[in-house]
Design brief:
Length: 275
């Protein structure tokens, strides 16, 4: 287990609900019943942290989570994000204006049928809006009881520090995997401060790490499972959120939580960059 903000215990492995939408993260999924079955299977397997965003679909992911899981079982934590808009497929535009974030939060509350969002995250800093203003809007929502904890996503170390001057930050969600470790300094800061680090794209390019592939073969595991086990092994604040639209892939991902790598295996993967 890992504790979000010191008061929300969740499974070490979460579920990223971006891929349950349609192609290019746009519109409804091709098989709605399979998407719902995937969400339910994740919860059946003990996953207690689901990460989504209003931009996934847009709104599709949040609506599917509600349809599949509401009323939510005790202990299930739904995290969502605001700050990106979707004018069309393949289009992602930043909007960190306080007025937009307030509307986005209210809409997510309505779609998810929640009185309070356990973890609400700024999806990406808007370079046209001071970060302190965007994060300050989330702090205001927190003060009003609309959200419990504040997270930020796609930030640099300097942006994390700036956000922390505006509010108490519980988590950071950045791209991080066995090949792409450009957010290492952010992860180091989170580890030192006890902030939850949520890596997105956690298994992407797993087969490009030669040590990881070799260890996976030796253990009879998939490279993706091994990549998740490696992430869990490098920091106690790590909360991977692998996503899929398949119940079978959920089972494979969740199995990685029981796969404990040795310190030598973790070091080998960490020291290897590509095949």
């Amino acid at each position: 287990m890992i504790s979000l903000g010191g008061d929300l215990p969740v499974s070490r492995l979460g579920f990223g609900a971006m891929r349950i939408t349609g192609n290019e993260i746009w519109s409804d999924p091709p098989d709605k019943e399979q998407a719902i079955a995937t969400l339910r299977r994740a919860v059946d397997l003990g996953v207690t942290f689901i990460d989504t965003a209003d931009a996934y679909g847009p709104a599709v992911s949040e609506n599917l989570i509600t349809e599949a899981l509401h009323p939510y079982p005790d202990g299930l934590v739904i995290a969502t994000k605001g700050g990106l808009t979707r004018p069309g497929p393949l289009q992602w535009e930043r909007d960190g204006r306080p007025a937009h974030l307030r509307r986005a939060c209210e809409n997510s509350l309505r779609r998810l049928r929640l009185e309070q969002i356990p973890l609400y995250q700024l999806h990406k800093p808007d370079l046209k809006v001071p970060l302190a203003e965007s994060v300050g809007a989330l702090a205001d929502l927190q003060a009003k009881g609309k959200i419990r904890h504040i997270g930020i996503s796609a930030v640099t170390r300097a942006q994390l520090q700036e956000a922390q001057r505006a509010a108490t930050i519980t988590s950071v969600q950045n791209r991080y995997n066995a090949i792409d470790r450009t957010s290492q300094d952010v992860l180091d800061a989170c580890t030192a401060q006890g902030l939850t680090f949520i890596p997105w794209a956690p298994v992407q390019q797993a087969t490009d790490n030669h040590a990881l592939v070799a260890i996976a073969a030796t253990r009879g595991a998939s490279p993706q499972q091994t990549a998740l086990a490696w992430l869990l092994g490098i920091s106690p604040v790590m909360l991977p959120i692998p996503g899929t639209g398949s119940p079978e892939h959920v089972e494979e991902n969740v199995a990685a939580a029981t796969m404990e790598l040795t310190s030598d295996e973790v070091a080998a993967i960490t020291g290897s960059t590509s095949r």
